[in-house]
Each structure stands twice: as structure tokens, then as C-alpha cells.
Amino acid sequence: MALRYGMRPEEYIEFDATGLADLVHRGKITPQELTEAAIERIEALNGRLNAVVERDFDAARSAARGVAASAPLAGVPFLAKDMNIDVAGLHLTSSCRWLGGLPRATADSPLAARWRRAGLCILGRTNTPEFAGEFVTEPTWRGSTQNPWDMTRSPGGSSGGAAAAVASGMVPMAHGTDSGGSIRVPAAACGLVGFKPSRGVVPVGPHHDELAGGLDCEHVLTRSVRDSALMLDLTGGAESVSRYPWKRPAAAFAAAPDAPLPPLRIGIAMRSPAGLAPVGEIGLAVEAAASTLARAGHRITEFHYPASANVGEPAAIVWMSAIAEEINFYRHAVGREPGRDELEALTWASVELGKRCNAVDYVRARRALTTATREMAGAFEAIDMLLLPTTADLPPRTGQIDGRTEAFALDHWNEESYGYAPYTEIFNVTGQPAISLPLAMSGGGLPIGVQLAAPLGEDARVLALAGWFERERPWTATLAELRRRFL
């Protein structure tokens, strides 16, 4: 492809991250030109979408000048979520007003350092609900992020800012975190690929050996399977404080999406561990995916969760306790207690839970999650892959799920939140790899995600089947049309 100096928006949005890096490798474009194209796109769209909440364009321009053209993702524009990972020069606030005065980070965390070594140019931070606690992205302090497919709806959460940025073409991929579905749910809401790797593959240091009691995973939201696979090669691997001594497999993950697949034993689970069923259009999308697999020679059987997989209460104790501990940790950094209006209702509920639960309660919850993990591993002995919905419903309207205001009630919030997304948290508990793929569209023009999950450590198998679906049921044209709406 012959490109003129500079890259027009209509050119920039046509490429995934691997494609943009290939242009740099072949001398068709420079990292500086990619950075300018991304900046132009962010400035043009962010006023409507509110996906990017912190910008450091000068630092990105400087970094682009120093990127080696041979780096795997040389010059590819990238955005970090405002959660968990220190990035030199950027604030880390978890979308919490109370943390707004903390200084910028002076050094990169190990994961951010790996982003830079890969050649990525980090332009800023994306929006997230406060402490990444919700399946919508509507923090009181930063304001709501809008779904590019329907501006009255949420892009999901908690990586909703990242999802809106990638779907609209601001950047080809962006950082996400996933403690209960926070990569996969927004991927489904915005028509993207959202992969949660196996526990321990991607590091979360330097301050933690794990996050959210081991529920959290760090990775990216992308438009293509190959981008997600390549990023796992570039960012995977233990670092000094990792609890899980993960070893890199002999074959690169980047090869997995094109790898041949033998006939697989695939379970299908239409109901969630708690017994919830999806709305009609989502159920039909899963059934259509199952039919596609059956025609290709895979064996489809019904999957039944063990009773222990209904992990709502013990999982809540673990992740809400993690939020309570974060508040305790930041008291020293901020130098004072949070004001009543400086934390949202769900965060205050987490603080109160942290006061009520003792060490025995917490260990009992961890034991319940371990039981679920063991029994899910047993259930997976009969299958190679599980096919299921990513969410039970289409993206909620902005304001529909309220974890922020005085109207908040935890029981109602749980009903609304897990009524929308009851299918993802179990794989954070078990540590299994799981991916959401944009395999269908609703009659009203909203994307539908279909989820795949495999046994712990079988990340390459998930990526291989995802790559096969991308060829059999391609979504590139649908996503491209969305990006062109914003030209």
C-alpha cells in the first residue's frame, strides 16, 4: 500500500495493530505519523465518547521518535486503563475523586515496561468505573463513557473506556483489566475481541503478587484475534513478585490463531452458574455458533456446572475486600480520610464489608472459590472447550445500573449487574482462559458477544478456535463500518 506522508483518518482506522506495525516495518509510515493519526482521532471523537480521561500527547510524540522500527509493534498507538498499572508520566486514580491529587508515576510497572519494549506509544489513560467495580463505565468524577454503537448505552465495564476507544478507531487496541469479566463484557458490548488469559500469565507487579485475591487478569481489547495473541507473547511471563511461576510455552501464541484444530469436544452452557438464561437474540447467537462448530466436525454436548460454580457471595467477599484494602492503602498516600462525597456508594459498601468480615470469613470465601475451581476442573475433563454467552442481555442504558448514588442498594445492584453479565466471573475464580468474540448483531444494530473457555493453561487452544471463528464468521467489515461512521 502506497501511503502519502501523514496518515488520513480513513487510512488509519482500516488497520489493526499488527497491520500498522507492518507498515512501519516496511517503511511505509513512521511511528511519529501513527502517533499523530491517533491524536487526531482522539481529539475528534473523545468529546462525544469520553473514553480517554488523561492525555500525554507530548510524551507519546517523544516516545515515537525513539521507537525502533524493528520492534514488534513499532509505533502502534496504545492507551492504558486508569487501573492497577503504573505508567511513568501518567496518574493512576482508579477513577476516584479522592485520588485525583496524587502525583504522576515516576516509573513504569513491569507490564508497562513490556508495552514500551514492544514498541507501543502510550498516549494516555482510559475511563473506568471507580475501582473497576462495575459492568458499566459511569464514574461520578470522570462522567460516563458512551457506547459508539448507541450513544444512549454503556460500553460495558469495567474496561469501557478502552472498548469505546478501540471500537471507534482511536487506537487499534488498549489495555484492560478483568476481575469478573471486565475485558470480556465491554468487548461484547462494543463488538470487539476480549481475551482473559489464564491466571498468572501477565504480571501485575511491582507492588502486588496478585490483584483482587487472584481474580484479576491484565490484557488488552482488540479488533482481531492475532493482535490479542501477539500481545500475550509480548507481555506474558513471570516477574520478581509473581505468585504463579508461569513458563512460556514452546510455540508462540501468535501462531495459535492459524493453527489447525483437531475435532474438539465442545460443551454448550446456555444458562449461567446461577441458572440465568440469555435474552432471545443472544441465545440464538450461541446456538448459531454451536451449529457452525458442529458442521466443522466438532462434537457438541450440553455442559452442566457443578453447584459450587455459583460463586456470587464468596467472590463478592474477595473482590470487595480488595477494594476495601485499596482504600486503606491509599489513606497514607493521600494523607487523609476520604470525604463522604469522594467515594461512590459501591466503594463505601466495600469499605463496610471490609469492616464486617474477619479473617475467618475471608479464608472461608477463598476456600469456597477453591472448591469451585477444583470441581470446574473436574467438569472440564469431559470437554476441550466451553461455548456460552458473554452477557445475558444487550448493553444497558446509561444510568440503568447504579453503583454510585444514594439510591444504591447492594441487593438491587447485584440483581441488575449479574442479570446483565452472569457468565464471566466463574473463569476469574478458576483462572481459566476465556474470550469474547463479536459473532452476531442484534436486530437493533448492537453487537453480541459469544464466549469460549478452556481448561487452565490452554490459552493457545482458545486462540486457535477464536482464529478459526474469525475466518468462518468474520466481523472485520461490521467493525470497519462503525469506525467509518465517526469520520
Helix percent band: 25-40%
CATH class descriptor name: Alpha Beta
Query: Taking Cα atoms only, what radius of gyration do you get, to the nearest Å?
Result: 21 Å
Estimate what percentage of residues fall within beta strands.
5-15%
**CATH architecture term:** Alpha-Beta Complex
Distance N to C terminus: 21 Å
* Pattern of helices and strands: HHHEHEHEHEHEEHEHEHHHEHHEEHH
- SS summary, helix count: 16
CATH superfamily: Amidase signature (AS) domain
Mean pLDDT: 96
Overall structural domain count: 1
Beta-strand segment tally: 11
Tertiary shape: globular
Largest sheet: 8 strands, mixed
**Strand line-up of the largest beta sheet:** 4-6-5-10-11-9-7-8
The CATH topology:
Amidase signature (AS) enzymes
Poorly predicted runs of 5 or more residues: none
Structural class by helix and strand composition: alpha/beta
Features:
487 residues; alpha/beta; eight-stranded mixed beta sheet; 12% strand; globular
Fold and architecture overview:
The chain is of the alpha/beta class and 487 residues long. It has helices spanning 9-12, 17-25, 31-49, 57-66, 110-117, 160-167, 184-190, 225-235, 280-295, 312-334, 345-356, 359-379, 410-420, 425-430, 459-472, 476-485, and strands at 52-55, 77-81, 121-126, 173-178, 193-196, 217-222, 265-268, 299-302, 385-389, 434-441, 447-453. It has a single domain (9-485), classed as Amidase signature (AS) domain (Amidase signature (AS) enzymes, Alpha-Beta Complex), CATH 3.90.1300.10. Helices cover 39% and strands 12% of the residues. The strands form two sheets. An eight-stranded mixed β-sheet has the order 4-6-5-10-11-9-7-8, sandwiched between helices. Helix 8 packs antiparallel against helix 15 (459-472). The longest helix has 23 residues, at 312-334. The two termini are 21 Å apart. 55% of the residues are buried.
